[in-house]
Amino acid sequence: EAAKYTLTDNESSILLALLVEKLGNIHTSIKPTVQKIFAKLGFISTPQKVGAALVNGMNSRSIKTKQESMDMLIQMFKVYGPDIITPKDIKAYAKLAGGNDLAIKNSAMALLNELANQMGDNLLLVLDSDAPQKVLDTLTQKIKPSSMILEELNKETKETPRKGKTSTTPRDREVSKKESTTKDTKDFVGLKANTTLPTVNQPPAQKE
Q1: Cβ contact 22:31 at 8 Å
Q2: Which of 130, 127, 110, 108 is nearest to 63 (CA)?
Q3: Are the C-beta atoms of residues 113 and 142 closer than 8 Å to each other?
Q4: Does residue 54 surpass a pLDDT of 90?
Q5: How confident is the model at residue 5 (pLDDT cuts 50, 70, 90)?
């Protein structure tokens, strides 16, 4: 039935943006109806446009709209699958799942759990080390990845350490500090040895 209708890119973008912004204000009783509208819009335009519009719900000033857009996105995964959002979007939701706002955190974690149901091991490969460790641990327990996937993840983590953190131990740092001090001393001694002092002309001796 929805295939009988067509919308231009501009029309679908405007309609989806309005629907997403209204998600924070709709009554619980009409949520199923709004869900059907989103599902049909995916056939009229494209599922990816529906996914992108709901992802943009993260930019809303309303906490309720952010939460409801994630909840609606979970329902759209069940209709269209996880390909309606990008790996970059998935990583953004993983960071929200490690945030401080309890409502947003729960909705983001519910979204990741649904992705875990549909993507399995691939979700961990997408997230790699870009997600908070607690979120990765929770998803790993749920997915129970194969030993091959775990080996790949461990390999990538070693090759790309997290930004702002180092993998050195206190002993490594102390050794590095001593090596740096020794190098500075050697450089100074070498500089001193290679430096030629300027010749100072002595005044002529006075005759008595």
Answers
A1: no
A2: 108
A3: yes
A4: yes
A5: low
